[in-house]
Design goal:
Four copies of one chain form a homotetramer. With 281 residues, the first copy, chain A, is α/β, with parallel strands linked by helices. Chain A has two domains: 4-53, Spermidine synthase, tetramerisation domain (Spermidine Synthase, Chain: A, domain 2, Roll), CATH 2.30.140.10; 58-280, 3-Layer(aba) Sandwich (Rossmann fold), CATH 3.40.50. Chain A has helices spanning 58-72, 88-94, 109-118, 120-123, 138-142, 169-178, 195-211, 247-251, 262-267, 273-280, and strands at 2-10, 13-27, 32-38, 42-47, 50-54, 78-83, 101-105, 131-134, 149-155, 179-188, 214-221, 229-236. Chain A has a seven-stranded mixed beta sheet with strand order 8-7-6-9-10-12-11, sandwiched between helices. A five-stranded antiparallel beta sheet of chain A has the order 1-2-3-4-5. In chain A, helix 1 crosses helix 2 and helix 6 crosses helix 7 (195-211). The longest helix of chain A is centred in the last third of the chain and has 17 residues, at 195-211. Chain A is globular, with a radius of gyration of 18 Å. The relative contact order of chain A is 0.14. Chains A, B, C, D: Catalyzes the irreversible transfer of a propylamine group from the amino donor S-adenosylmethioninamine (decarboxy-AdoMet) to putrescine (1,4-diaminobutane) to yield spermidine.
Chain lengths: 281, 281, 281, 281
């Protein structure tokens, strides 16, 4: 049977995946959630029709959202994940035995429940005793918090729909306040290639730059996201991801990773010239 | 009108581009050549139905095939391009005023003629006085040549069809012999993500490693190639692309580039762990 | 979300339906069964990836398989349906109050159960007291039966997979024997337009012609089947669908129908010249 | 190479044809004209992205627009074709040796010239001495003409774009006046299946009914038009297509036809019940 999921990367560019089975489809109060089985990517799920996570390349995203910050500051103890309903970011965090507290604030409980059922590969560590799940609006959750976290990971959808506020200046300011003095903010930073994504990348970056003394961007290869060229933002009050990076400290954790490594840690901050220009505009 | 070009990245993954006009379609003695106009990528052309070059992201490929080697050894004088019928690699080479000789061996003259007509953005420097065009089989051309080039750029199609021999051990040996003592070989090295491409990546790498004392691989973001994660191989007799790299020497050339820069030079060799593993298999 | 079901009408012709939800997907011992919800066609289901029945145009098929024969001989009492797991043919038959016995032999019980759940529009009359369901091979069921039915309706899939035997000469002979002297056989007769279907149409017709004294073909517009031009075969021992047709007798039943009517009864046997030629080949 | 032309039959139903070559693409003052080569349908062309004519099933359309009227009144001498730029309707008309005058009024000369070049199968008889070509607006051309034609064939596009006026009441009135007392008007009458087409079918029919004493609709199988179920309108002042039909008179012309025949002549007016209902609404 020919059943194809298509994501329109632009109005004139389609990315299509042959689907074996459409295993879940529900409207939550926030978005439409669909799960599929495919040959190439295993199980994958979409929110409002956009690819979020699949079994084949989720490791790229979850390595890169987590380990760059954890390696920059191996003393991080208290982490807040905003979004990340699939659980993959929490899974990577729980591998660090020294972490004391992992709060995850996901607005849409239905995403978490569906991932627990259909994507245990990512949702497998949500019951770690250090993890607290909050099914709330991340913006409200963080507002008013002071010096509570060493690391905030914004694992959000695109800035349309429920993820929109997570790209606002007010939110970034609240993150700043909620972070300790050596705190780090990592945020989903969109992509430089297709114009719609590049615009959001620039908007997000210009807002964060105003608030955080250190604001950098790093890249990775995410084949199932539009263009495959994806970015995270690294913002902090004091720590520089390269100058303050001690590869040996991270290697001492003894973690095996499929994408991240300490060479790549530095390499991923080396951006193409056109991306650097866009970020300066 | 809805007219869509589709490249099957795998049997179950399609990448589709809405086409405004199909402006050229011919069978050469070697392959089927098609040119299209599109909104997102401007003019693009395919060989045997696979995306080769488009106006939007050709700069990525041509920066990365050329400048990494030129920056590793700024004294390169004699260059051989094998394949590269679109002319983009030669265009980048001609920007180096100190180059003395650029030989380009392309088996399919029809590709060059069509690119001159429809893709002047890449085919614009083929009449530079230092450029000699040979419409011949690259394998035969290089066979028997000794110490004639400082740099060989293998700008080939995938190892199916006319490009096949350019992935053979015999060919790599001939390249070795044709290179000077500090010679460098750059070759199109496929991609680590989809299995068919990863297999060719591994085969190519294992052959080159046997022949060249230094054999490395570097990556870049090429959104219109399958997975967007693409590689070149860097092989040489003596020069190491990082240890022997002098950013200032390259910067002294004063070239403006849209993708390549001297930070990225080092960064692009930092490969994800899964790619490093595949290359060692 | 963009999720599209595609049926390849030929290797180079696709018919695609945007799907809202893929509500069922199972492998039965005989075939793959999938149910979908769509905007244009409502719920539809496929067997081995081919469109069988949808809420929008099922009435065409079920009117035409049933009423042409019932109107030709209003005295029919005993009917056998072979295939027809969706129940639509039985539904139309049960509207005739004077029918005494409706046997339905469907090889794949899972089709019936799924239709009862997801397509009550067709599967709503399977519990009529005159209906007996047999989940058996239609070929075996009919073999050896003599003069047991006034009408046999072969509501089969294409002659690939489980439907294959229902296009064989041995089967048509068994139908002949199982029918009363004024018995009628209606069979799914494929389509004249695309070569693969036209070949099966001709094969089926030439076999039936050898066995039944009267063998005709009638056409209808079935938009969701390949080409939209579909046929049933009308074969009988003595009755001619036009010469023996009494419109008033059928109209006396007082049935409302959306496709069939007594004018169309005659009109549908008027075939285009190219179809007549193909059937004579 | 995978290049597919898609016509959206509705927003959620696509019909796609694999294209070998896109051989022509121009903007005329009236519409966008594209020609393609395909395996299944040979050469085909589209106006504003909608399938008009292809080598495989043009015979259906051109048989049905021409022969039903010519057989109803074998004394027709003067014919006006409005639209029909591909020439297929004129080709069928020229087969009647007794016709004296065939005027064809096509607003878009570029369509005719392109068909002469790429679709000689339909455009082959435009130089018949009885044919006069007028590249004008059909509405203006016919306005004011009195009793000049025995038959008017409106071979138009859909009522969007240049074809719009050809579905207006004023135009139908002008046709009435331009026709002789036993004159016949045949018009492209859209389709009953998909709602957008059914709406136009009803609008057209209700307008014609007001003007012509006799107004009927006949159907045919046109696989490459949306749903494959297509209609022509038959309107006349005095002649009834069935009551006044003399099969022998038409057969005396000795024409071989692939779709039309004298049985089908009557049969094609037998419409499904749902179509009859729609036409009465």
């Amino acid at each position: 049977m020919e059943l194809w999921y298509t994501e329109k990367h632009t109005d004139t560019v389609d990315f299509s995946i042959k689907v074996k089975k459409h295993i879940y489809s529900e409207e939550s109060p926030f978005q439409t959630i669909d799960f599929f089985e495919s040959e190439e990517f295993g199980t994958f799920f979409t929110l409002d029709g956009l690819m979020m996570v699949n079994e084949k390349d989720e490791f790229v995203y979850h390595d890169m959202i987590t380990h760059v910050a954890m390696a920059t500051n191996p003393s991080i103890k208290r982490v807040l994940v905003i979004g990340g309903g699939d659980g993959g970011t929490v899974r990577e965090l729980t591998r660090y035995k020294h972490l004391e507290k992992i709060d995850m604030v996901e607005i849409d409980e239905m995403v978490v429940r569906a991932c627990e059922k259909y994507l245990p590969i990512t949702a497998c560590k949500l019951h770690d005793p250090r993890v607290s799940l909050y099914f709330e609006d991340g913006l409200a959750f963080i507002h008013g918090k002071v010096n509570e976290y060493d690391l905030i990971l914004v694992d959000s959808t695109d800035p349309i729909g429920p993820g929109e506020g997570l790209f606002s200046e007010a939110f970034y300011k609240d993150c700043y306040t909620a972070l300790a003095d050596n705190g780090i903010l990592i945020n989903q930073h969109e992509s430089p290639y297709y114009p719609n994504y590049a615009r959001e990348m620039k908007r997000s970056h210009s807002k964060i730059e105003k608030i955080f003394p250190i604001s950098k961007v790093y890249q990775f290869h995410m084949p199932t996201y539009p263009s495959g060229h994806w970015l995270f933002g690294f913002a902090s009050k004091t720590l520089d991801p390269i100058a303050d990076f001690d590869p040996k400290a991270w290697e001492a954790f003894g973690l095996e990773t499929k994408y991240y490594n300490t060479e790549l840690h530095t390499g991923c901050f080396a951006l193409p010239t056109f991306v650097k220009k866009l970020l300066k505009e």
